[in-house]
């Protein structure tokens, strides 16, 4: 008997996590797979942050924390928003969750009524679309292409807005494309949004510190819409703390209160130890963040060079995050050595996994089937070997 609800049956599994799991299973069988699928840095958490976590255990931070997180952490986040982003938020306007993933989902579930429209520029991070589906909202996907560096223009936004539009989800720096919105590009979007006061913005800034083009620009900097913005951020990427599961939302009081109510019935406050470690991350020495950023910049340059050497792949130069999103549709319709045909990005990702033992994620999961996503959050040696194998495998397609 299978009693799975319609809600769950309508939900697609996470393609990023599924591919990563597949790659780990092959590794466990002794196959030398290079995993470029999951978006996770290969660095270790900086020592001072680890020490803060250990201290928290010794100091008996073992009780339930307040649902939105310890006040000391929310204060540290408010200081971070002021120091790094020039934004004024009271600690009461911040709620911490089990990763930025939960923060995004909280925001969506707290805003979206069945049938409400949510604008998502594509390519998008896999989970946005599914979270909107979970909330019974309607995704309005706005396709942006390589030619426009995958950034939504003001006129595309204007065209997508209807009286039923509830929110826009922006991700800058972007997963999967590496696109970074400039201040001027954000301002152009804001000029449209001011004409539509019912539209909220969920601004996912989790890759803030992995930025190769200068300063990070948050859409919340524009006073005309600040109270309609939910900033999403966390410690996973900048501080190499994916497993700690600590993210936050900063936004208007009503939204933070609503998230508090939802979270209070659902997960309670996030892990107490992770919270104390995160406090150190936000308040402590930021040198490791800068160093990791430099390593990603070197890897980005290397990967761009390696991709250019592979015929048939076409790629924008990422301005942030740690992914490349090459167009690979020139290989569609070709035949693999085993006689199978590459029909789309899913076939190509599986082919690369089986033939090259390189795991990447099919573009179709991000809303564009012409591409695949590869994470370069791994060593330069791994990257060289991975792209050598990819080039060799693609050359076998006839
Ligand atoms: N947003 C984006 C765009 C991401 O790539 C990720 C990566 N997992 C998240 C949010 C969630 O991050 P986490 O839950 O690890 O804080
Ligand atoms: N955000 C990362 C990715 O896109 C981690 C996996 C996930 O949470 O989906 O690969």
Q: What is the number of helical segments per DSSP (H or I, 4+ residues)?
A: 13
Structural class by sheet pairing and helices: alpha/beta
- Rg computed from alpha carbons, rounded to a whole number of angstroms: 21 Å
Low-pLDDT runs: none
Ligand list: 4'-deoxy-4'-aminopyridoxal-5'-phosphate, glutamic acid
Instruction: Give the overall shape, derived from the CA principal axes.
Output: globular
How much helicity do the residues have?
40-55%
What's the main sheet like? 7 strands, mixed
Quaternary organisation of the protein chains:
single chain
Brief synopsis:
The chain has about 400 residues and is α/β, with parallel strands linked by helices. It is built from 13 helices and 12 strands. The chain has 2 domains: about 5-45 and about 290-395, Aspartate Aminotransferase, domain 1 (Alpha-Beta Complex), CATH 3.90.1150; about 50-285, Aspartate Aminotransferase, domain 2, CATH 3.40.640.10.
Describe the structure.
The chain has about 400 residues and is of the alpha/beta class. It folds into two domains: about 5-45 and about 290-395, Aspartate Aminotransferase, domain 1; about 50-285, Aspartate Aminotransferase, domain 2. Helix content is about 40%, strand content about 15%. It contains 13 helices and twelve strands. The chain has helices at about 5-10, 15-30, 45-60, 70-85, 100-110, 125-135, 155-160, 185-195, 255-265, 270-285, 285-310, 345-355, 380-395; strands at about 35, 95, 115-120, 140-145, 165-170, 200-205, 230-235, 245-250, 325, 360, 360, 370-375. A seven-stranded mixed β-sheet has the order 2-8-7-6-5-3-4, sandwiched between helices. It has a three-stranded antiparallel β-sheet with strand order 9-12-11. Strands 1-10 form a two-stranded parallel ribbon. Strand 3, helix 6 and strand 4 (about 140-145) form a beta-alpha-beta unit. Helix 5 packs parallel to helix 6 (about 125-135) and helix 12 (about 345-355) packs across helix 13. The structure holds 4'-deoxy-4'-aminopyridoxal-5'-phosphate and glutamic acid. Glutamic acid (GLU) binds near residues 17 and 127. The site of glutamic acid has 11 residues, from helix 2 and helix 6.
């Amino acid at each position: 008997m299978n009693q799975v609800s319609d809600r769950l049956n309508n939900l697609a599994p996470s393609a990023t996590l599924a591919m990563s799991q597949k790659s780990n299973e092959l590794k466990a069988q002794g196959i030398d797979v290079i995993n470029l699928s999951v978006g996770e840095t290969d660095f270790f958490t900086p020592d001072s942050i680890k020490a803060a976590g250990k201290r928290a255990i010794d100091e008996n931070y073992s009780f339930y924390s307040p649902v939105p997180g310890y006040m000391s952490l929310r204060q540290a986040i408010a200081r971070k928003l002021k120091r790094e982003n020039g934004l004024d938020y009271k600690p009461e306007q911040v709620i911490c969750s089990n990763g930025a993933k939960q923060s995004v989902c909280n925001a969506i579930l707290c805003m979206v009524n069945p049938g409400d429209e949510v604008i998502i520029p594509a390519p998008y991070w896999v989970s946005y679309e599914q979270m909107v589906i979970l909330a019974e909202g309607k995704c309005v996907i706005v396709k942006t292409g390589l030619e426009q560096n995958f950034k939504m223009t003001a006129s595309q936004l204007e065209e997508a807005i209807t009286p039923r539009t509830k929110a826009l989800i922006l991700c800058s720096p972007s997963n999967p494309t590496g696109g970074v919105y400039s201040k001027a590009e954000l301002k152009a979007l804001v000029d449209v949004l001011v004409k539509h006061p019912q539209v909220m913005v969920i601004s996912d800034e989790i890759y803030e510190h992995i930025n190769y083009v200068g300063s990070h620009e948050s859409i919340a900097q524009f006073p005309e819409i600040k109270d309609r913005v939910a900033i999403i951020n966390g410690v996973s990427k900048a501080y190499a703390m994916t497993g700690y599961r600590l993210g936050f939302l900063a936004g208007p009081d009503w939204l933070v209160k609503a998230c508090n109510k939802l979270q209070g019935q659902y997960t309670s406050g996030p892990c107490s130890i992770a919270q104390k470690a995160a406090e150190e991350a936000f308040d402590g020495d930021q040198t490791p963040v800068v160093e990791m950023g430099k390593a990603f910049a070197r890897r980005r340059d290397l990967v761009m060079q390696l991709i250019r050497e592979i015929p048939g792949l076409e790629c924008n130069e990422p301005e942030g995050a740690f992914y490349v999103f090459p167009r690979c549709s020139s290989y569609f319709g070709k035949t693999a050595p085993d006689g199978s045909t590459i029909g789309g990005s899913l076939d190509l990702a599986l082919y690369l996994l089986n033939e090259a033992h390189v795991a990447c994620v099919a573009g179709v999961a991000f809303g564009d089937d012409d591409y695949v996503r590869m994470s370069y959050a791994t060593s330069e040696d791994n990257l060289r070997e991975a792209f050598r194998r990819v080039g060799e495998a693609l050359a076998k397609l006839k």
